[in-house]
Amino acid sequence: MEGAVALEGVTKRYGAETVVAGVSLAIPPGEFFTLLGPSGSGKTTTLSMLAGFVMADEGRVMLGGQDMTQVPPRGRGLGMVFQNYAIFPHLDVAENVAFPLTVRRAPKAEIAARVAEALEMVKLTGFERRYARQLSGGQQQRVALARAIVGHPRIVLMDEPLGALDKNLRYHMQVEIKEISRRLGTTVIYVTHDQEEALTMSDRIAIMERGRIAQMGPPRDVYEKPETAFVAAFLGEANLLPARRDGDAVAGPGGTRLLAGSGALAAPQGLLFVRPEKVAIAPAGGRTEGANSLPGQVRHASFLGNVVRYQVEVAEGATVLCDAANGAGTPLHAPGDAVRLSWRAEDSRLLAA
Amino acid sequence: MPLKISGAFLLLLPALLLLVALFIVPIGWFLSSSIAELGTWAEIWAEAEDVLLSGAVGRSLVNTGAIGLIVTLLTLVLGYPVSYALSRVRGAAFTAILLCIVLPYFTSTIVRTYAWMVLLGRNGLINQILLGLGLVDEPVNLLYNRTGVIIGMTYVLLPYMVLTLYAAMKAVDPRLMQAAEGMGATPAQVFRRVFMPLTLHGVVAGVLITFILAIGFFVTPALMGGPGEIMVAMLIEREVEITQNWPSAALMTVVLLAVTLTLYAVYSRFAEPGEALR
Known about the structure:
The complex is a heterodimer.
Chain A: E1 5-14, E2 17-27, E3 32-36, H1 43-51, E4 58-63, E5 66-67, E6 79-81, H2 93-102, H3 108-121, H4 137-149, E7 155-159, H5 167-184, E8 187-192, H6 195-201, E9 204-209, E10 212-217, H7 219-224, H8 229-234, E11 239-246, E12 249-251, E13 257-258, E14 269-274, E15 280-283, E16 292-303, E17 307-315, E18 318-325, E19 338-343, E20 348-351
Parallel strand pairs in A: 3-8, 3-9, 6-7, 7-8
Antiparallel strand pairs in A: 1-2, 1-4, 4-5, 9-10, 11-12, 11-14, 12-13, 14-20, 15-19, 16-17, 16-19, 17-18
Chain B: H1 5-36, H2 41-53, H3 55-88, H4 91-102, H5 109-120, H6 125-132, H7 146-170, H8 174-182, H9 187-215, H10 219-224, H11 232-241, H12 246-271
Protein name (chain B): ABC transporter permease
Pfam families (chain B): BPD_transp_1 (PF00528)
Subcellular location (chain B): Cell membrane
């Protein structure tokens, strides 16, 4: 049970506003779990309740199998990386990293050994006597990371730890954080609003929307099998076409008969979901693959390098996005070209509008 | 866009001219002419020794320093919690505390000092309460002695301490304290290991500015002090106005000015939050 995290019907209200509404989740030890959502979705409040900075109004917070709902932060024994790093400006790197141990009055020799080990792990050996203002953003990030793991906590919370870094450094640190957490076997609960980051790093993702978990699952599941239009749109580009149930099939734009994957909506009206990269594009009259096929006209073509993104009008006022890999010998379509789009039934779903 | 030095100088010029014309020149003239009256350097030195080490002046210098120190410590002890509260509240509570601190300063010092005299006198409110409660058998002397001077000066100087401390405390990122708490620190440890070190430069600045102001005080000790509580500023005034011994006044002024400028030099090093850490 050590390292396990669970929330049971956790709710937080500020005045009349419910910020977190009955969130339940269970995270096994060693999992890299991400809370993903736009700002105001309740992900940071949820993390704050795990940390103990915010006390839940309802529900239970379980850490390592123990009920910690009413325990203050210092009793929870968690490692933490804060959004702005929160590096103490009056302490040098070694003193910062040692902080969680010194406040618990660990023996000096143990502190020295653990600090050296943590700094080595984040590749900051030799920076012990520097102060935060003498470090780059990436180095400050590493100090924060070293400080979070120095006490060998079973659970580490990270609140948008890479938000302030530029894109290249971000990617680098993503790999490093993942690597360290795997090596230590720590449970990581990671908060971000960056869907790419969530998809890259997580074992499982919970997508939050207005204080609730909209969907939870491994990155590929939530990306390819979204259950709501919100999840579909939040995790990346998505085609969401107005559609209506028609027997076993779906009536799409212009009344075309289409097939959708399983697990789809029971209601008669909805949105037909398909990712742009799952849509194949071919010249009109050309050979098409997949159960669904729609004729259309290219409205716009954006050359993105490895991918060409087409906006194809398939009916009056209905356009479909299609990402075609810029592979060897792939012909490019120009705006105005008549084309035929196609995709497999299992790559599309009928979602609630 | 940063101003060039010459541009900055131009902007400072009017204020600088005013200061030179109304402060530097008169005080320079006063000091040099008064001291020149004494004659040669050796004679000046002898006179200085005479004046400064003489009983009355020496005692008043010691007195000034002692009162300054006590008052500074009192404002620190009383002001620190107030500043802390002020730095942690927002909205109406913030405005209320700030008004309590600043509002009395819209009245003149003399009026406020007389108000204290009414409160502290032998038949004043405080003595009446103490007598009424049976805590004392006869009125306590709260006025015309050191107690009176200290109460009055602490009251006048408290806002300088509070506002200086507030500036330093407000600059502390509250997330740092939350982070410390999250890393296992008790509230006492958060205060001692994070909040206090980060506001220490403010404490130093507040202590220096309060002490500098305290040792130059005149009105409060003159009105609320007794004959035994002569401070340097009062002595200088007496030498100029009554005994007309300008050289003696000038020598004391030099001492006071030297102490003030030295402390100010130290203060300016702590006034910038980052400086003290460097």
